[in-house]
């Protein structure tokens, strides 16, 4: 049984579209560390979730990265939406550049307590710190291995359009359509999470 850590049942349904194995939702409030990148946040969460559930665990972390704002809000996207609001973040992006180019990124972190090779590109890069990072509960030699998969979708920030989706979907336009104007199936076909899930599913089928 693969446990997907989320409070969003829609993410679980999306994962089931990509995976042949059984996936169930796990509502678990893992520690979200402060970091400039998504990878160590997701890796820490996957380790905690595996320890909590005692079963293979999948955690995702995602964010909106605006080019002209040096990647802001990035890993702090949820906090920025809660405090500033989606529309104000959109105004900041459009004031900084026209067009306000941006990308959604998603990192999936998987942990089942067993060893495997370090994560594949593009997450792995030259170092493997995100895949082998320790937390304050463990020493380097005893760190639980975590496998990472990333998905990216490029677009631009526009005035809000559409009634669907959630978060920054109304202000993120991809190929002329905002995520909020897309159906769930259309969004899943191009989304950052869908691209990460596709990579994960291909690897997980051989696990």
TrEMBL record:
<dbReference type="Pfam" id="PF01725">
    <property type="entry name" value="Ham1p_like"/>
</dbReference>
<feature type="region of interest" description="Disordered">
    <location>
        <begin position="121"/>
        <end position="140"/>
    </location>
</feature>
<dbReference type="InterPro" id="IPR002637">
    <property type="entry name" value="RdgB/HAM1"/>
</dbReference>
<dbReference type="GO" id="GO:0005737">
    <property type="term" value="C:cytoplasm"/>
</dbReference>
<keyword id="KW-0378">Hydrolase</keyword>
<dbReference type="GO" id="GO:0047429">
    <property type="term" value="F:nucleoside triphosphate diphosphatase activity"/>
</dbReference>
<comment type="similarity">
    <text>Belongs to the HAM1 NTPase family.</text>
</comment>
<dbReference type="InterPro" id="IPR029001">
    <property type="entry name" value="ITPase-like_fam"/>
</dbReference>
<protein>
    <submittedName>
        <fullName>XTP/dITP diphosphohydrolase</fullName>
    </submittedName>
</protein>
<dbReference type="GO" id="GO:0009143">
    <property type="term" value="P:nucleoside triphosphate catabolic process"/>
</dbReference>
């Amino acid at each position: 049984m693969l446990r997907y850590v989320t409070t969003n049942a829609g993410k679980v349904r999306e994962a089931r579209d990509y995976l042949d194995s059984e996936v169930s939702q796990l509502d678990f409030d893992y520690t979200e560390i402060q970091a400039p990148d998504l990878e160590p946040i997701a890796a820490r969460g996957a380790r905690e979730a595996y320890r909590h559930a005692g079963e293979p665990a999948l955690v995702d972390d995602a964010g909106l990265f605006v080019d002209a704002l040096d990647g802001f809000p990035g890993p702090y996207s949820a906090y920025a939406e809660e405090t500033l609001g989606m529309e104000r973040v959109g105004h900041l992006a459009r004031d900084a550049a026209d067009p306000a180019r941006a990308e959604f990124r998603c990192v999936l972190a998987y942990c089942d307590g067993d060893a495997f090779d370090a994560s594949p590109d593009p997450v792995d890069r030259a170092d493997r710190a995100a895949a082998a990072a320790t937390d304050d509960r463990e020493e380097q030699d005893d760190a639980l291995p975590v496998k990472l998969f990333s998905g990216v979708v490029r677009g631009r920030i526009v005035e809000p359009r559409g009634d669907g989706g959630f978060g920054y979907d109304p202000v993120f336009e991809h190929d002329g359509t905002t995520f909020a104007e897309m159906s769930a199936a259309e969004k899943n076909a191009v989304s950052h999470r869908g691209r990460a899930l596709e990579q994960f599913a291909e690897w997980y089928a051989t696990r």
